[in-house]
Amino acid sequence: MIEINFTEADGNRRILSADPGSTLLNAILGAGIKGIVAECGGGCSCGTCHVHVALDWTGRLPAPADDETDMLSLAEDVTEQSRLACQIRLAPELNGLSVAIPGAA
Amino acid sequence: MERIVGAGHAGVQAAASLRDEGFDGDIELVSAESTLPYHRPPLSKRFAEGLTDEAIALRPAAFYATQDIRLRRGTAVEEIDARRQRLTLGSGKQLAYDQLILATGARNRRLAVPGEELNGIVSIRDLGDAYRLASSVVIGTRAFVVGAGYLGLEVAAVLARRGVKVTIAASRPLPLSRSVSEGTAKVLATALREMGIETIVGADVAGFEGSRHRVTGVRLGDGRLCATELVVIGIGAVPSIELADHAGLDVDDGILVDEALATSAANISAIGDCARLRGGARLESVANATFQARRIAAQFCGKPDLTPETPWFWSDIGELKLKMVGVRQPDDVVQTLAVNDGHATLCFRDQQLAAVETINANRVHVAARRILDAGVPLGMDVANAPGFDIVAHAKALAARVAESSRAA
Hints:
CATH architecture of chain A: Roll
CATH class of chain A: Alpha Beta
Number of strands of chain B: 25
Structural class of chain B: alpha/beta
Largest interface: A-B, 22 and 37 residues
Oligomer: heterodimer
Number of domains of chain B: 3
CATH superfamily of chain A: Beta-grasp domain
Low-confidence stretches of chain A: none
Mean pLDDT of chain B: 95
CATH architecture of the largest domain in chain B: 3-Layer(bba) Sandwich
Number of helices of chain B: 11
Shape of chain B: globular
CATH topology of the largest domain in chain B: FAD/NAD(P)-binding domain
Helix content of chain A: 10-25%
Strand content of chain B: 25-35%
Distance between the termini of chain B: 39 Å
Largest sheet of chain A: 5 strands, mixed
Radius of gyration of chain A: 12 Å
Structural class of chain A: alpha+beta
Mean pLDDT of chain A: 92
Helix content of chain B: 25-40%
Low-confidence stretches of chain B: none
Largest sheet of chain B: 5 strands, parallel
Radius of gyration of chain B: 23 Å
Strand order of the largest sheet of chain B: 3-2-1-7-19
């Protein structure tokens, strides 16, 4: 199992667990995190699974594809830490990944 | 007890949003399907990829447990007693409710011609249909697609890519012409030709011919017979309103609801594909289902109403990512925008931007959504000015909105 340190909108911290190879979005939905709608089902079509990846992790993720960058281009609270959770596949080396809801306290 | 009938996008999102908003009473989703609730859009877009139940689940199984949402699967609701606030299940069991949300969705329109029951004729609505279709994909065979709407085009593109010779029977000269502008439809038509897909225009299907219970050909209205091994029917959907109708609720091409999504019966609401706003349109889209689900949850929990969202739609037709924001009207004035490797069409109504269609131009789509959602009118004169850049315009607008919310 992979563990993810997740900061919710109210600043509350949780540890999510996920199977290696699944997506970050899946872990988030399973835990019932508030503020993630993810309506398109991981197709990189809706932009509603926006998360902020901790700075010390951003460089360790595969770079976003053009589709993802485009969807994020006008998202609220977009920063260099912004990613779409549906596009992040949880390889074993991402154990301990630290992620927050944009605008988290 | 909050009961929700139907576990598609609308029903599941309503349950999720109720918990998000802090509702701590009982929630039960009643689903006629036996699978874990799933995303429907991939069924017609990605059926040939060997979809698994898990990969297209709306939420992982853990969600229902962690959120304390009861999911009653494989359970058909036979009847609603609106006066006594009770549901009767197929088993005869009765369930009481305090609030009922109908999210019964839609089902595919049937052709109603002889031979429709033959094997090898499919229409995609549920996961079983997608599996059946996937198992029928054989390189070098022929497929006949009835209807040039979203579903027909998506399926046709997948089949063509898998080496199936595809023919589409379309009622109008251009694909998707009920939904998109002529310019966008022409781009799609060209793309379909390049995929090797043939289109027969204006042909109505009179019936199907078969041998040993399996379809072998399509008989057209003019008498022609098109031999085929597979038929896919995609001629639109009708809302599932029978339960509501029998219970005496007001229905008319949908379960009629007011702005607050309330039906004509006390403590019964309707959301998603099955609901139609009185005097307004019925929208069949994931975005609408999600929005209405979130809106009703906010209402039940006494939270402020959500800001209305401009309706948006997406479709993947082979390599083409078609997106629309706003609902185009036939009289809209259209303007094409130059986009690298893609296409964008702006639709203006009363001199203002009302809808935008894009193909492989996500950045423009996102910008258009931002502009339309902000509710700040974009005049045709501004958009027509030389050097107008919609993405830069949306960025500037977003910055202004952020500034004013900081100031506030």
